[in-house]
Amino acid sequence: MKVLVTGGAGFIGCHVNKLLLDQGHTVTVIDDLSKGHKDSIDPGTTFHQINLNDQEAVEKILPGHEAVIHMASYIEVGESVKNPVEFSENNIVGTVKLLEAMKNTGVKKIIFSSSACVYGRPRKLPITEDDSLGEQENPYGITKVTMEDFCKLYHSIHGFDVTLLRYFNPYGPGELHTPETHAIPNFIKSILNKNPIPLYWKGEQIRDFIYIEDLAEAHVLALPLTGLHIYNIGTETGTKVIDVVKKIFEIVGFEVPIDDKGERKGDVPALVASSQKIQQELGWKAKVDLDEGLRKTIEFFKNHTA
């Protein structure tokens, strides 16, 4: 299958590209490199440095593709609070222009990179796909809900095949965001540099950490689907953030001080996925446990720092 990957120079996109290529697919990458890294893109792909808001350029690239995996989003929650207009233009308007470009060129299959944040503060755990979406506490969450809604709208109005993948907490080798807002890479880098670890809520929040290679596989399994599908992508195991820190200490063989940041507005106490639906329908299941995933991630950052 010929697949267009938006945001394909990013952390998740690079792993998805590799898996697609390994399985014999032809891959085209669109990325404006505002957040991604060109040297992370597999040379087996065809790369175009453009922004999705350039709809005319996207329409020139799309013909001949059979599916789009859409991952071109700004993701920093704090930045979304500071710059809601920029986030809305990139995430929401960029998505609508992509969908319009797809409609105009007859490419009507999209797999969208969504987030567990759309559930807001969950009423029960584990979270299932039919749970109601919660009230959002930041512009980033609102953009993800709206992007989902537009994808669903193009399914109902224009007959698109749509799969929404709601990620829980991805981590793994290759995560090089600037700024980095995700816990695990920040913890690992702080520890390897022997700096204090910034920790909110004393690390009592519970999260479902999903290893990047397991996450990437879900995108490829979704390619044959028709109709509208929504799947959680998580391990179904909740882990306290402080326990992740302790695991990293154990793996590296030393500890550093904790920089207690107190409370932080907008943090949900616990997020744990039910992934029963995707297990039953696509046969997907997380394979890499947290200990193994952390070891591989620590090794990457050791080599990257070196």
Parts with pLDDT < 50 across at least 5 consecutive residues:
none
Number of helices: 10
What is the assembly state of the chains in this entry? single chain
Q: Roughly how much helix do the residues carry, as a percent range? A: 25-40%
Q: What is the CATH superfamily label of the domain at 2-170 and 209-234?
A: NAD(P)-binding Rossmann-like Domain
Shape call: globular
Written overview of the protein:
By secondary structure, the protein is of the alpha/beta class. The protein has a domain at 2-170 and 209-234: Rossmann fold (3-Layer(aba) Sandwich), CATH 3.40.50.720. The chain is 40% helix and 18% strand. It has 10 helices and 13 strands. The protein has helices at residues 11-22, 55-61, 77-82, 84-105, 139-158, 183-192, 212-221, 241-252, 276-282, 290-305; strands at 2-6, 26-30, 46-48, 67-70, 109-115, 161-167, 169-171, 197-200, 206-207, 209-211, 228-233, 239-240, 258-262. The strands form 4 sheets. Strands 3-2-1-4-5-6-11 form a 7-stranded parallel β-sheet, sandwiched between helices. A two-stranded parallel ribbon has the order 7-10. A two-stranded parallel sheet has the order 8-13. Helix 1 (11-22) links the parallel strand 1 (2-6) and strand 2. Helix 2 (55-61) runs parallel beside helix 4. The longest helix is centred in the first third of the chain and has 22 residues, at 84-105. The radius of gyration is 19 Å and the shape is globular.
